[in-house]
């Protein structure tokens, strides 16, 4: 069903595009998949996508994504009174250390990543474990567009239109056992295609690992994303499958996922292992708890420049308090950062 979230996630019809334009998808719903001569968009793109995301670079969508896109629930969740970050900024200013430590390295180096074929292992405390080809893994799920704020722990932020499905839908499919308390995510380990994994950046013990409490993963805002800006995920943004948890700092949203495990004990995550005093397990966006080396009370919204800085106050839980604050009732968020 269509998720309606109150207050901070509500949106006016005019926030992104006129309603009459956005919902005129008869040609797509009728199965039309003709090529468009608009900004070089791929063959599966439709007129509404072209109008909304005119600056999107062409991609090469896998067949399963192309087949699912026409039935996507567009604008299932949105943000109010905030502009979407330009596609170029969202795809050329990234942290993805598997491809390098500079912000531009992922876009420059991620072309070596091979996303087809791709498989996902589901294991641990589940009734239906297995290794699934991505096209089979995705079969049960209807895609939704979720326009979310993204807040990096480094105090920069974006607004990104993701395409994906709720993590809760996956959990329903795999049937966690009564022992499952946490969900652990693991990124691809492939030094041949990921130059950062064979570099001298030795602080990280690859593969990259992240995790959530099971009740956090069940929250309707938590999604597994397979696309953004009306197209499949670019490699540098975590293709072909990544986690998006909008009320947490960006490093929680693990990219290029190959393993999802239900576990009884809290998993030791990558950045927590490197510097637990700086990067806690919860990683909730909290303007009242500073990073040891900078304030978290403010953020720089991209695009932003030296002479036109786009600085704003950071919101608790990145503006999603109404939806997630109850998850942490009674928890000291200064100690459990």
Describe this structure in words.
InterPro entries: MsrP (IPR022867), OxRdtase_Mopterin-bd_dom (IPR000572), OxRdtase_Mopterin-bd_sf (IPR036374). One of its GO terms (biological process) is protein repair. It is found in: Periplasm. Pfam families: Oxidored_molyb. It catalyses: L-methionyl-[protein] + a quinone + H2O = L-methionyl-(R)-S-oxide-[protein] + a quinol; L-methionyl-[protein] + a quinone + H2O = L-methionyl-(S)-S-oxide-[protein] + a quinol. The protein has 337 residues and is of the alpha+beta class. The chain has one domain (63-328): Sulfite Oxidase, Chain A, domain 2 (Alpha-Beta Complex). It has 11 helices and 13 strands. It has helices at 19-22, 26-29, 47-52, 63-68, 87-92, 105-109, 134-137, 167-174, 214-218, 270-274, 321-324; strands spanning 73-77, 119-124, 130-133, 144-151, 156-166, 182-187, 209-213, 223-228, 231-232, 242-244, 257-263, 298-301, 311-313. Strands 1, 4, 5, 8, 9, 10, 12 and 13 form an 8-stranded mixed β-sheet that branches. It is globular and about 50 Å long. The two termini are 33 Å apart. The model is unreliable at 1-45 (pLDDT under 50).
């Amino acid at each position: 069903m269509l998720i309606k979230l109150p207050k901070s996630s509500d949106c006016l019809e005019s926030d992104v595009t006129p309603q009459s334009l956005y919902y005129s998808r008869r040609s797509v719903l009728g199965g039309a998949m003709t090529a468009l001569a608009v900004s070089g968009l791929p063959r599966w793109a439709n007129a509404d996508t072209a109008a909304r995301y005119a600056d999107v670079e062409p991609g090469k969508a896998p067949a399963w994504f192309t087949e699912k896109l026409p039935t996507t629930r567009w604008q299932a969740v949105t943000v109010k009174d905030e502009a979407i970050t330009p596609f170029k900024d969202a795809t050329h200013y990234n942290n993805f250390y598997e491809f390098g430590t500079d912000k531009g390295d992922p876009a420059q180096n991620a072309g070596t990543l091979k996303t087809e074929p791709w498989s996902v292992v589901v294991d641990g405390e589940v009734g239906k474990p297995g290794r699934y080809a991505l096209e089979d893994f995705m079969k049960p799920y209807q895609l939704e567009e979720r326009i979310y704020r993204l807040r990096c722990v480094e105090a920069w932020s974006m607004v990104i239109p993701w395409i994906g499905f709720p993590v809760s839908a996956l959990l329903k499919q795999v049937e966690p056992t009564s022992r499952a308390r946490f969900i652990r995510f693991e990124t691809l380990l492939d030094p041949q295609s990921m130059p950062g994994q064979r570099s001298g950046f030795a602080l990280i013990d690859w593969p990259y690992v992240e995790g959530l409490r099971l009740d956090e993963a069940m929250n309707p805002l938590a999604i597994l994303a397979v696309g953004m800006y009306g197209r499949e995920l670019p490699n540098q943004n975590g293709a072909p499958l990544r986690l998006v948890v909008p009320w947490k700092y960006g490093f929680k949203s693990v990219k290029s996922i190959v393993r999802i495990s239900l576990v009884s004990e809290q998993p030791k995550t990558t950045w927590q292992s490197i510097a637990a005093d700086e990067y806690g397990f919860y990683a909730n966006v909290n303007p009242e708890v500073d990073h040891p080396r900078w304030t978290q009370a403010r953020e720089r919204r991209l695009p932003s420049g030296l002479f036109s800085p786009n600085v704003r106050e950071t919101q608790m839980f990145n503006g999603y308090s109404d939806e997630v604050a109850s998850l942490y009732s009674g928890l000291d968020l200064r100690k459990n950062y």
